[in-house]
Design brief:
Length: 299
Amino acid sequence: MSQLHKKRKQFIILSLIVPMLLLIAFVVFPAIDLFRMSFTSWDGYSPVKEFNGISNYIALFQNEDLWLSLKNNAVYFFVHLFMIVVELAFAVLLTGKLRAAKFYKTMVFMPYIINGVAISYAFSYFFSPINGAFDAILGTVHLEALIRSWLSDPKIVNFVLAFVSLWRFSGYHIILFMAALQSVPQDILESARVDGANTWQLFRYVQIPAIMLMVDFVLFDNIRGALQVFDIPFVMTAGGPGYASSTFTLYTIKTAFTFSNFGLASTMAVAIMVMIILIYLIQNNLIHGLILKDRRKEA
C-alpha cells in the first residue's frame, strides 16, 4: 500500500508540474514581459527598448479614439448582459420535456462551433447594401422604410455587430446553463414539488441558487468576451467608419502593427487585463451580496 501511495503521489506531482510549467512559460513570463514593455517606446523591431516611464499610461488616458473604442465595447457588454436572462430561459425550456429538444440543442450550439471569420464574412454579405439578404427580406415584407446602411451608420453599426456576436455565442451560454441545470439533484426538485412549489418557485428558489457558480462564470465570460472582441468588427467593418465600430482589442492591435508602437499597445493590453479583473471583482461582490441577502430573507 505504501508503494501504491508513493506512485499516486508521484503521479499527482507530475500531473501538476506540467500544467504549472506551461502556465509559467506561456502566461506568467509573457505577462511580466508585457508589463515591462508597457514602460518603453519600443517600435517592434529596434534592438533597444527605450524606457519612457509612465508616458504610455498618460497617453492612454488622453487618447479619445481609444475611449470611443472602449465605449463600443460597452455595447457588446450590455447587449450580452441583457441576453443572459433569455439564454437562461431557453436553457430551462430545453431541459424540460420539449419535443425535438435534441434538434433544438444542436441548432442552438451550431453557430458557436463555426469559425468566427466565416460567420463575419457571411453576415457582411447578409447586411450588404448591395444585394444584401436582410434588405431583400425587409423589402419582401414591405418594410422598406426600415432599410439602413447597417455597417456604415455610426449610430447602429455596433448594435448590428453585437447582434452577430449574440448569434454566435448565445448557444454556448445556453449549453452551459443546461449542463448546470441538469446537475441539480432531482430529489431536491421532487421534494420542492411535493411541498407545493410551482415552476417559478422551483426556478427562483431551487435552480437559480444551485447554478450560481455557472451564472458567475457566464457573467465573467461576458466581461472577457466584450472587452476582447476582435474578429467580428475586424472582418465586417475594420473598425469603421472612422473609429465608430473599433474595439479596445482592435485598436490595440492596430497601434502595434499599423503604427509600430508596441510600447503603447502593451500598455493597452495591461489596461484591459486590469479592467477585466476589476469588473469581475465588482460583479462577484455584487452577486455574493445578493446571495447573502436572499439567505437572510429566507432565514
